[in-house]
Amino acid sequence: MNYFPRCSPEFEKKRIGFKRSLRNGWLNLLRNKFLSIATMLVIALIFFVFNVILAFSFATDSVIDKIGEKIDISAEILPDVEDYTIQTLLETVRKHPNIRDVIYVSKEEALKRFGTKYPNVIAFLSHNELENPLPNVVRIVSDDLSNNNAIITYLEQPQFSRIINQEKLLKNQEQKTRNEKILDITHFIKQIGIWLNVIFALVAILILFNSININIHAHQKEIHIMQLVGANHRFIRGGFLFEGVIYAVLALLISLFFSQFVVQYLTTNLLTVIQNESVLVGLNAVLFHFQDRLWITLIWQFLAAIFLGLLSSYLAIQLYLKKRTLF
Known about the structure:
By secondary structure, this protein is mostly helical. It has helices at residues 9-31, 33-70, 83-94, 107-117, 119-127, 148-155, 166-169, 172-218, 220-228, 233-273, 277-292, 294-323, and strands at residues 73-76, 99-105, 137-142. The protein is 76% helix and 5% strand. The two termini are 43 Å apart. The model has no long low-confidence stretch (mean pLDDT 76).
């Protein structure tokens, strides 16, 4: 007894057509091996370059975030401001959505830290019975480097003018300029990465398009015979569509193999040699995205490969249709 429901004739027809189209696409690849190998290697190189650009983007973002953690905003408290007013200021500033942390350093604590580095200065102050010259300071850490400028502008409001030394706050304008330069460089690098990816994607489409176009013209007689025996137009097109997808997917697998090889090399060699903190941060970001998040990267690139293959094949077929009345 058959416990499995029988498929409808229409579904069975589509299933058989799908299998035959996939088989034809694979055979088209094997009939011109040298062209297929050359095409896949070039597309694999393009995918590899795309991964390099992606890795560089991850590394840049991580390094910028690390730099942002070290760049804080210092607000000097005016003399004779009461502790209650300072606490109110801290509570108000902490409510700002772009501020991650607020650290209050009293002048006593600042003098103590200063004394550990320069004990002679502390001895001089004590010997001459001089008062503590250091001010109370509020150190503000933003959640992102791009928000530092907005926080400085926020602290320049009139409500803080009787608490924060606005003249000393102006010194942060130099830092403000540095922040803008860092952000401009980051934006410029990202724009270059986007345009390079677009250019390489277009190159990949053109290469696949030419390969499919060559195969279509090489099989004109076969296509004509298939039409004469009543082959469905979708079936004839399907073989070339699958050919483009197979090209792209195999090229992606080759590219991922080399990408993982490079990542493995970085893990076993460079990380143990390089001592620069910024470079290590960038390399760790690359390793995180290509090892810990490998499946996410693989899925997105797999979908992109299918899209490129289908688009290239479709364009080649449409160009052929304009010249011929086949299909």
